Structure formats: structure tokens, C-alpha cells
């Protein structure tokens, strides 16, 4: 591919005290990428790429520090200018993929049936990792955890059998954790890493909870070693900002929290890219596609939130809450496959991928010297011995070149000037010409046929995600990231009739996401018949968790969901480590905000009504009747768009009401409004979905169905505002 865009020149007038730097470092399997971003404008200040230092005595920590030092030197700032430093790592993911995990000593606690239940956890030793290796497990029982000597003896037994890390497991430890705490204390006495299941999750389900804790323990020693090396290195370098680590749900956590739950770093690679799209691109509703050379990771942002589910590891579901990402074996380097004969016009396009030019060890034809393509023949090969012999390459007698999706995208003119995947259009067309002759079509037609075939599976995944999460296709945007973004996203958007764009600096979208990510914590509790106090307690626990990791109290947002069918209360808290200048920006350009809302609604700006504004957000709406043959008989609905200070549509609804309230009277007014707008059916009372705009915060209460819980949470949010402050309430009719 072409050289990345060079980093911006140093700004001699930049005042570090006024403009601290946020640094994000992404440790990949081959390269470690680092970026520096202005904390006040989010502008990219510089970027570097160094080889990942797997074989160095200090491991990947050496590459992290090399990247950091080079980055700071390039942009001309000192270590004390760094106000935020975070890194993402594939170490835990690779350990599980490669089977390179520590031997795990499980101490099962209990008597009677509890002893029987924990004894069955020996079967965790049959859990097969993706590498084919079995999870290395040693097991012992502890019947009297209150006896410190017995707890210590149980730890010694598993250590004698080769365990390198200890897991304490007791049924119902989420209710009474004293037994697991005794084993933890014993393990700490012996100086070995330890995990207790109640510290990993507070959800019931012994097998699933123990499985998650065991996997967490398996990656712990390696992650602790790296954490110690990185922390000591940045302190020596003079960086005073606390080191944060990327999580698999799109946020970051403190180094102390990572030491406690290193499993949260598994699958954090795709999460970093989504964080970049969410924060850097300000996507509020859309699908993010991160395209590399071999594959494309597809994930969803809905109403400004990443979508999370419990991840499967080793073929089994865990309690690890991770980004819902679907991977498709199509990337910028995917090779073209041919069927049919060799006569001109006798071939057919059989498929694209899954093998890529990178695995085949072939250069892309579109990046070749044009002279090397003169007279090159189209031949079919097996990239690897196990592959079918139908992959098309160009052979000039001395060298072979891969025909790839990148070649097709450049030949079709879909890769913009300056893009990381940009090649000379003439060279790309020359590369595709032999393929076009074999197919009996023109060069551009051949290029588009390749792109169509390549995006077929990606399109199916996007359709499935759009349906699964109920995305509104009218406002849905496809955003491409990764070095191969331009090879998939533009054509896919054209094919699906969706707005599509390539993220700025797409080739470094992952380290950008790390640099811009918010501190995040998720708390889940099973609470049958949860009271208002229970729900508020879960919310407070999540909020306190991000505050303890350095989040600025004035910027913390907590989203609460209550699932009455599963008795599950979930609170997700997010917050920045400093209240950034961008978060304080007031809406100053009313017409720009109106234009953004109108564009989202597909309407003339003059037809759009502004319903409310609080200085940080403007709320616009448009009355419409539903389409279709019976639309004229339906009531008009208010389509609402919430536009933030940067002109981005942050929230949308196809049927909502908007009310402006003073904080001093908001609780009482909300109670009346919720009661008025609650509908009743066979399933009982259905309150509206509610969002509150309070200064720069957007409080999402839409995941709460019980009116009492909803109002209790609303009171918590409103109670922190001044009595004269404006509260904007949006209420959407549920269907």
C-alpha cells in the first residue's frame, strides 16, 4: 500500500499547559502504532509505527516505550505534556489463541452438594482453546475455608501440582464471598496471582462464572509482567499521567483494574477501532467496518452506544462483556478466484478470498511498477498447499503479483486521493485488464464485479446487525476504518443504498480510539424483585468504579437497564479522565445545527422546528405521517433529532415528545408526563422511553421499563443540577 499520510508538522505556538496531549498506543501482532491527539480539539498531532517487540527481553513493553519516545520527539513535546496515556494490546487474545496460558489451580470450596458442584469444575481441563490446546487445570477441594491453615494447604496442593495461578470457586459466592476471600488471602501469602469468581462477575451460574475466572487467571501472569514493565518504563520516562488500558467493550480501565481483570483486554482490538469511530467520527447510528488486509470486523453503534454481548471463548460462553463484532474473511488483500476455462471470455468469477496476498506472500499488482505488468499473464495458483488452484495472479515470467480487492477498488476509482490504500488508477486498470479479458467484460465492469462478490458476505452481516439491533436505516451510516477501509466501505454503501464514509486517518483508527476512549465500567446484578434502592445502588456502584479510576465527576454518564424477565440490573458508566474543552463547548451556530437535523430528516431546513435548546444541545423536530397505503389514516408523528455542539446528530426518534423543564420542578413534572404517556396492554403498563438532556450530559433511561425505577433514576440525575437549570426531556412511544 502507499505510504501513510505524514504526521502534521510541529506547532511552535502550541501551549502544552493549555493543550495537553492524549496518547494512544495499539499493540498489534506485527506493528505497534502510536498517535498523539490534542485534548482540546481531538486533532491528530502525530503518528508513528514500530515493530512489535515480542522477542525483546521486556516483551511488548519495549515496543510501547519505543513508540512513545519517538512520538513525543516527533511532535516536540515532553513527557510531562502527556495528560492521558492508554494502550491496547493483543497479548491476552494471542495467549488464548495460541494456548500460551498459565497452569490454573482451582480451589473448589464447600461441602455436600456444593462440593459435588465445584468438583465438576475439573472438566474445565477439557476446554479446548482455539489453538487446540486444552486449558491446563489442577483441582483441589477445600471443605473448611474458615480454617486459615486448611485454606493455605489447599493452595499449596495445587502449587505442588504445577499451578502458576489460583482460582477460588464457591457456589453462591456472589451472596457470601468469605470462602473465596480466605483462599485469596492464602494465595497472596504464597505470593501467587489469584482470582476469585465473585470478583469477576456478580451473576449466578457456577460453571459460567468459574469458566470466566479460569480464563482470566490463565492470562494473568503474562499480563501482570507486561503491566509492571510498562508502568516502570513510563515512570522512568517522566510521564505522570496514569496509564490506562483498552477494554473489550470500547472503554479504558486503570492499570490497577487491568491487573485485577486482565481478561477484559481480550478482543479489545476491534473495540479500539469502534471507540475511534464513536469519539473521533461522532457516529451516533451506524455500522463500523474495520478492514485490514485479510478480514473486516463489523460492529454496531446504536444511539451513540456500542453494542455489547457476552463473548464466547474456547467455544463456550463467558461472562466477559465484549463488543459484538462479526468478522468476515474479506480484506484489502483478498485474492480473486476464477472458475471456467482459460479461453478469453471463458472464465467466471468464482469467489473472492478467504486467502489474502499477505498470507500468499505476493505483492499487490496495483502497486507494481507499470513496466512489470507489461505482458504479464493471468494464471491460477494455490497460494498454500491446502488451497484450491483457482486463485488468480499475474505472472510476468520473473515475478508474480496478487490481484486483490484493493486493485479492483482503485481500478473502479473508489479510493480517494491521499488514502492509505490509494494506487495509481492507470496501474490498477492495467492490473485488472487480463482478468477483464478472461471474463469477457470491460475493465471497470470486471473491477465492480470483484467488489460486488467481495462485499456479498459483508453486506449479509451488515443486514443481520441492522436487523438484530433495530437500526434506523434512514440515519444509519457506514463508517470504514483500517488501512483497507476504502476497498470495502465505499462500494458497500453504494450497493446497500446507505450513507458511507471513510474515517479520517483510517489507517490509525485503532490507536486513535485508544487515545480518545472514555473510562468505562459495567456492573451486572441478578436481583429478583429489584426495588428502587437496588437499582440506584447498582448505578452508584458503576459510577464509583469509574470515579475510582480517575474519571472527572462532572462528566460521568451512567446508563441503566432493567430486564424484569431475567431479574437483571445492568449499569454502564463512562467518563473522561478530564473534562475536555470540547465537552464544554456551547452550541453557537443555530443554522448549522438546523441544517444537520434537516439533512438527517431528509427535509428542507425551513420545514424543521426547533423545540428546545440548553446551550449544549438543540432539539429539532418534523411532523410526518407514516408511509404506506394506510399512512393517511394514521396519526402524525414527531420525528426528533438532537444535535450536539459540533453539529452531530446524537439522538433520533421517529415518534417522540419534547418538554423543557426547570430542574426545580422537573421531578414532579416528569412523574405526571410519564403517567400521561404510559400505555396499557395485555402485558400491563408500558412507560415511554426517556432521555434527559442536562447540560453536556445525555442521560439514557430508555432501558428502564418500570415507572418507579425510571423516576428514581431521573431524580438522581436532576438532583445534581442547579434549580434554575434547564432539563430537556424526550419521551418516545414504545412499540
Tell me about this structure.
33% of the residues lie in helices and 28% in strands. It has 22 helices and 36 strands. β34 and β35 form a beta hairpin. The N terminus is likely disordered. The protein has a 6-stranded mixed sheet. Strands 11, 12, 13, 16, 22 and 23 form a 6-stranded mixed sheet that branches. A 4-stranded parallel sheet has the order 6-5-7-8, sandwiched between helices. α13 crosses α14. The protein is globular. With 735 residues, it is α+β, with helices and mostly antiparallel strands. The longest helix has 31 residues.
Which key features would you list for this structure?
6-stranded mixed β-sheet; 735 residues; 33% helix; alpha+beta; 36 strands; single chain
The chain-level mean pLDDT equals 90
Distance between the termini: 48 Å
Number of helices: 22
Q: Trace the largest sheet across and list its strands.
A: 3-2-1-4-9-10
| Strand fraction | 25-35%
Rg, Cα atoms, Å: 28 Å
Low-confidence stretches: 1-14
- Class by helix and strand content? alpha+beta
> In this structure, how is the largest beta sheet organized?
6 strands, mixed
Helix content: 25-40%
| Spatial shape | globular
The tally of beta strands, per DSSP, is 36
Amino acid at each position: 500500500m502507499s505510504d501513510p499520510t505524514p504526521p502534521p508538522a510541529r506547532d511552535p505556538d502550541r501551549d502544552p499547559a493549555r493543550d495537553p496531549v492524549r496518547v494512544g498506543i495499539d499493540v498489534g501482532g506485527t506493528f505497534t502504532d502510536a498517535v498523539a491527539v490534542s485534548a482540546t480539539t481531538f486533532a491528530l498531532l502525530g503518528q508513528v509505527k514500530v515493530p512489535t517487540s515480542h522477542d525483546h527481553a521486556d516483551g511488548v513493553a519495549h515496543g510501547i516505550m519505543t513508540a512513545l519516545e519517538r512520538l513525543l520527539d516527533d511532535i516536540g513535546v515532553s513527557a510531562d505534556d502527556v495528560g492521558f496515556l492508554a494502550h491496547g494490546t493483543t497479548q491476552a487474545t494471542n495467549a488464548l489463541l495460541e494456548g500460551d496460558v498459565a497452569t490454573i489451580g482451582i480451589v473448589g470450596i464447600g461441602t455436600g452438594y456444593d462440593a459435588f458442584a465445584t468438583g465438576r469444575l475439573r472438566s474445565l481441563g477439557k476446554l479446548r482453546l482455539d489453538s487446540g490446546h486444552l486449558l491446563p487445570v489442577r483441582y483441589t477441594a477445600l471443605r473448611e475455608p474458615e480454617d486459615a491453615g486448611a485454606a493455605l494447604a489447599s493452595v499449596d496442593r495445587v502449587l505442588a501440582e504445577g499451578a502458576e495461578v489460583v482460582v477460588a470457586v464457591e457456589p453462591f459466592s456472589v451472596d457470601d464471598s468469605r470462602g473465596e476471600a480466605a483462599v485469596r488471602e492464602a494465595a497472596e501469602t504464597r505470593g501467587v496471582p489469584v482470582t476469585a469468581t465473585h470478583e469477576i462477575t456478580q451473576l449466578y451460574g457456577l460453571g459460567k462464572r468459574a469458566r470466566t475466572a479460569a480464563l482470566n487467571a490463565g492470562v494473568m501472569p503474562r499480563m501482570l509482567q507486561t503491566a509492571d514493565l510498562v508502568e516502570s518504563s513510563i515512570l522512568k520516562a517522566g510521564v505522570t499521567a496514569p496509564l490506562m488500558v483498552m477494554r473489550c467493550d470500547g472503554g479504558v480501565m486503570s492499570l490497577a483494574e487491568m491487573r485485577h481483570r486482565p481478561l477484559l483486554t481480550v478482543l479489545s482490538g476491534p473495540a479500539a477501532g469502534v471507540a475511534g469511530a464513536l469519539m473521533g467520527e461522532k457516529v451516533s447510528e451506524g455500522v463500523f467496518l474495520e478492514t485490514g488486509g485479510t478480514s473486516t470486523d463489523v460492529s454496531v453503534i446504536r444511539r451513540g452506544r456500542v453494542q455489547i454481548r457476552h463473548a464466547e471463548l474456547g467455544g463456550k460462553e463467558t461472562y466477559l462483556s465484549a463488543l459484538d463484532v462479526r468478522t468476515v474473511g474479506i480484506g484489502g488483500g483478498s485474492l480473486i478466484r476464477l472458475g471456467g476455462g482459460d479461453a478469453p471470455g471463458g472464465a467466471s468469477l468464482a469467489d473472492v478470498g478467504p486467502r489474502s496476498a499477505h498470507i500468499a506472500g505476493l505483492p499487490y499488482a496495483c502497486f507494481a511498477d507499470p513496466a512489470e505488468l507489461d505482458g504479464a499473464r493471468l494464471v491460477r495458483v494455490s497460494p498454500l498447499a491446502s488451497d484450491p488452484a483457482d486463485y488468480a495472479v499475474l505472472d510476468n515470467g520473473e515475478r508474480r503479483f496478487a490481484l486483490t480487492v484493493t486493485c479492483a477498488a482503485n481500478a473502479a476509482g473508489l479510493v480517494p486521493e491521499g488514502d492509505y490504500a490509494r494506487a495509481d488508477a492507470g496501474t490498477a486498470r492495467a492490473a485488472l485488464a487480463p482478468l477483464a479479458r478472461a471474463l469477457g467484460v470491460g475493465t471497470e465492469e470486471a473491477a465492480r464485479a470483484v467488489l460486488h462478490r467481495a462485499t456479498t458476505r459483508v453486506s449479509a452481516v451488515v443486514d443481520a446487525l441492522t436487523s438484530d439491533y433495530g437500526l434506523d436505516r434512514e440515519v444509519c451510516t457506514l463508517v470504514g476504518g483500517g488501512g483497507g477501509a476504502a476497498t470495502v466501505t465505499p462500494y458497500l454503501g453504494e450497493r446497500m443504498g446507505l450513507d458511507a464514509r471513510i474515517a479520517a486517518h483510517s489507517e490509525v483508527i485503532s490507536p486513535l480510539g485508544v487515545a480518545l476512549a472514555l473510562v468505562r465500567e459495567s456492573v451486572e446484578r441478578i436481583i429478583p424483585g429489584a426495588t428502587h434502592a437496588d437499582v440506584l445502588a447498582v448505578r452508584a456502584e458503576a459510577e464509583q468504579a469509574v470515579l475510582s479510576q480517575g474519571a472527572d465527576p462532572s462528566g460521568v454518564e451512567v446508563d441503566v437497564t432493567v430486564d424484569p424477565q431475567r431479574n437483571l440490573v445492568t449499569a454502564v458508566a463512562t467518563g473522561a479522565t478530564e473534562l475536555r474543552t470540547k465537552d464544554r463547548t456551547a452550541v453557537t451556530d443555530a443554522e448549522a445545527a438546523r441544517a444537520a437535523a434537516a439533512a438527517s430528516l431528509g427535509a428542507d431546513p425551513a420545514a424543521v422546528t426547533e423545540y428546545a435548546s440548553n446551550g449544549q444541545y438543540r432539539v429539532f423536530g418534523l411532523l410526518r405521517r407514516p408511509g404506506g397505503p394506510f399512512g393517511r389514516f394514521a396519526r402524525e408523528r414527531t420525528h426528533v433529532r438532537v444535535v450536539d455542539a459540533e453539529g452531530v446528530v446524537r439522538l433520533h426518534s421517529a415518534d417522540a415528545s419534547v418538554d423543557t423543564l426547570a430542574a426545580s420542578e422537573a421531578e414532579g413534572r416528569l412523574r405526571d408526563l410519564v403517567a400521561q404517556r404510559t400505555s396499557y396492554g395485555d402485558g400491563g403498563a408500558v412507560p415511554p422511553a426517556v432521555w434527559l438532556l442536562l447540560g453536556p450530559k445525555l442521560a439514557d433511561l430508555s432501558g428502564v421499563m418500570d415507572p418507579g425505577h425510571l423516576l428514581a433514576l431521573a431524580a438522581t440525575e436532576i438532583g445534581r443540577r442547579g434549580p434554575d437549570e434547564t432539563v430537556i426531556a424526550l419521551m418516545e412511544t414504545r412499540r
